[in-house]
Amino acid sequence: MLDSRVIQLVPKASAPFEDAQRLYMEARYNQCLGALHGNESLPAVVLAARSLMRLAKFGDGKLDRAVEMLEANRSRADVHGSDAMRGEIAMILGAAYHRLDQQDEAERAFFDARVYLWSTRDTVLQGELEYYEALFAWGSRNLDAAARHARAALNTDSQSVHSRALELLGAIAASSGNYLAQADYLDRALSHLEKFAERDVWVEAHILYNLAILALELHLDPIVDRIGARVATLPWTEETSVPRFEALRHVGWCNALAGKHVKAFQLLRESAEVAPSIPWRIAALLDRSLLAREMGETLFAEDELQSAERLAADFDWAGSVGDERFTLLHLAEVSAERGPARAERHIERYRAIKRKMSNLHAFRADVRLRAAECVAEAAVARATGQAERAALLLGEAFETWSSIGYARRAIECALSLYELTGDQRFREYADINIQRFSASWISRRYDAMFPREEAWDQQTTAAAARPAG
Fold first, then answer.
1. Other C-beta atoms lying within 10 Å of the C-beta of residue 217
2. What residue spans define the domains of the chain?
């Protein structure tokens, strides 16, 4: 017999606030929002807004919702909140407005945050405000002000703020073309994070991602294993899938350059397994195709490339966010020789993307973006018989890569330029720098172009021509 008593349904209570804080630290932002459901306290509102902002970085959150929540609670904070709470709300609101490219609103919010927070003794929040003001100045490319605020944000008592400030100082250095300094700042940020038993997953994920890129591009062999160990043990989440994917693939390519091909393929396979979107899956296929081609596995390379092209043909690139669009450049470069017409369409689709990059995107005004575009367009030009245009584009890319210390990319351009022009200065650049990559496919390409006997003859002749010292 059914129980005839009326059962009242009680709304599910929110989880303890400490649980939500733990989920935030673990970069489980959707779960954090779930744990905060029903909690209308001011700290819960701020934590929810912080979560939404981080979800929005890769297109999963709604910044306008974060703004609405914070604006709706400012008057309540004026009555019931402390100066620290009022300042924190204004600070996060300013950061959200900045991300939305509403600069006047952001400045007003940051001004309010300064008024409130500098009347408190909360050095962590004061440091975080300096960090967001540094980010605001950097977004406007006011590098002096950005550096001043970022240095003021350095607070060794805070795991997160101190590391993020070092990361931003690295980005500021990169804006001036000093990528070795950026790597040093990121190395220092990682060293700071290593001091703490509890890992701030979001912050460390981004530092590992950016440091892995520079370890590859600047050939920083001594730190590759250290980065790889941290990547292998970080408790990654769905929300950090993009930096995980990027960190894995760049550490994979570091191993490939060192001649550790089994390890490289393993890491590239892992990156493919965690690729968070269609463009990233295409990038993973291209990585494996390129490495397989360089290792002589032509059938496997062709199969991966065809899979990448099928995925690219069906994807709506107009909605791509962040770095996803650069996959089209990579696809055009890799596919140009075997399908120049298709490669040209990839370039056209890249140019047709109207969605603006965030003003916080490092590549938005970076010489490396132009160099990458030149390399991709040069590959298509060369495949379509436009040798002179290809040489001009590669020449521009070479000047960029060689001037900023990206020797691997510069050697690849130099070898192609020598094939196109026969200009000895490109051969000389390759001669001087190739030993750094002696275990890689780049060295094999160099050896195929310049057999050792020829190189030995030239060195012997040059030595004989030198006067005795």
1. 21
2. 14-121, 199-275
More confident of the two residues 96 and 365: 96
Instruction: Provide φ and ψ at 442, rounded to 5°.
Output: -65, -40
Distance from the Cα of residue 392 to its chain's centroid: 28
Give 85: exposed, middle or buried? Use CB within 10 Å, 0-12, 13-18, 19+.
Answer: buried
Rounded CA gap, 125 and 153, in Å? Answer: 9
Cβ atoms of 347 and 376 within 8 Å: the answer is: yes
Rounded CA gap, 294 and 440, in Å? 9
State pLDDT tens for residues 255-296. Answer: 999 999 999 999 999 999 999 999 999 999 999 999 998 888
CA atoms of 448 and 250, how far apart (whole Å): 26
3-state secondary structure of 232: helix
- pTM for the full predicted model: 0.89
d(C-alpha 314, C-alpha 319), whole Å = 13
How far apart, in whole angstroms, are the C-alpha atoms of residue 127 and residue 132?
9
pLDDT in tens, 412-429: 999 999 999 999 999 999
Q: Around Cβ 314, how many Cβ atoms within 10 Å? A: 7
Contacts of 386 (CB under 8 A, 6+ apart): none
- In CATH, which of 1.10.10.10, 1.25.40.10, 3.60.15.10, 1.10.150.530 is domain 14-121? 1.25.40.10
Please, what is the end-to-end C-alpha distance for the chain in angstroms? Answer: 109
- At 183-210, the pLDDT tens digits run 999 999 999 999 999 999 999 999 999 9
Q: CA–CA separation, 164 vs 195, rounded Å? A: 15
**What is the structure's pLDDT at 4?**
41
**What is the Cα–Cα distance from 131 to 7, expressed in whole angstroms?**
52
pLDDT score for 13: 54
CA nearest to 292, candidates 313, 262, 272: 262
Q: Between the CA of residue 362 and those of 81, 116, 130, 177, 368, what are the distances in Å?
A: 36, 31, 19, 12, 10
pLDDT band at 361 (very low <50, low <70, confident <90, very high): low
User: What single-letter DSSP state applies at residue 235?
Assistant: -
What is the residue-wise DSSP string for 395-424? Answer: HHHHHHHHHHT-HHHHHHHHHHHHHHH--H
**Taking 90 as the threshold, does the pLDDT of residue 61 lie above it?**
no
Nearest to 40 by CA among 11, 10, 19, 14: 14
